[in-house]
């Protein structure tokens, strides 16, 4: 997955349908999430589509999230959120203002409220997971 700054650079050059395509492409770049991890415990509440996020840690203590959604654009939004924090140390993720990192994308202006309503819940899940693991 490209860095968030690179995604934003491309995103700003696009409009409407091309932005949707970019989000869908991002979603397709997510690591495959095994169906066994798509449980009620990993489901993000408040999303109009089904979204699952499962945290893992790498050998060097970085957070790596597996995620999936049953809707292509929503999966792209998930990928965008994860691009802000993926493969970073838990303490760094806990201190990241993910909403501020995503603000330049103006998702609430580009997408329907249904598509973005679960984003705050996803951000909160990532933040609390990172805080817990940062200890």
In short:
The chain has 8 helices and 3 strands. By secondary structure, the protein is α+β, with helices and mostly antiparallel strands.
Domain tally: 1
Order of helices and strands: HHEEHEHHHHH
How much strand? 5-15%
- As for the CATH topology, it is Sufe protein. Chain: A
What is the CA-based Rg, rounded?
14 Å
Tell me the number of strands.
3
Family: Belongs to the SufE family.
Protein name: SufE family protein
Domain Fe-S metabolism associated: 15-128
InterPro entries: Fe-S_metab-assoc_dom
3D structure, described in words:
It is a single chain. This protein has helices at residues 4-12, 16-28, 72-83, 90-94, 98-102, 107-110, 113-116, 119-134; strands spanning 51-57, 62-69, 88-89. It has eight helices and three strands. It has 135 residues and is α+β, with helices and mostly antiparallel strands. It has a three-stranded antiparallel beta sheet with strand order 1-2-3. It is 50% helix and 13% strand. The mean pLDDT is 92. It has a single domain (4-134), classed as Sufe protein. Chain: A (Alpha-Beta Complex), CATH 3.90.1010.10. This is SufE family protein. It comes from Sphingomonas sinipercae. Residues 15-128 form the Fe-S metabolism associated domain.
Features:
alpha+beta; Sufe protein. Chain: A; 3 strands; globular
Topology record:
Blueprint: H1 4-12, H2 16-28, E1 51-57, E2 62-69, H3 72-83, E3 88-89, H4 90-94, H5 98-102, H6 107-110, H7 113-116, H8 119-134
Antiparallel strand pairs: 1-2, 2-3
Helix pairs in contact: 2-3
């Amino acid at each position: 997955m490209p860095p968030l700054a690179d995604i934003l650079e491309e995103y700003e050059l696009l409009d409407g349908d091309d932005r949707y395509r970019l989000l869908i492409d991002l979603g397709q770049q997510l690591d495959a999430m095994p169906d066994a991890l798509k449980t009620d415990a990993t489901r993000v509440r408040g999303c109009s589509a089904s979204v699952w996020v499962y945290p893992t840690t790498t050998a060097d203590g970085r957070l790596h999230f597996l995620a999936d959604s049953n809707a292509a654009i929503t999966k792209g939004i998930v990928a965008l959120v994860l691009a802000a924090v993926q493969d970073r140390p838990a303490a760094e993720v806990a201190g990241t203002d993910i909403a501020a990192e995503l603000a330049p994308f103006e998702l609430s202006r580009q997408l329907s409220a249904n598509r973005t309503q679960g984003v705050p819940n996803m951000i909160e899940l990532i933040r609390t997971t990172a805080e817990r693991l940062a200890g």
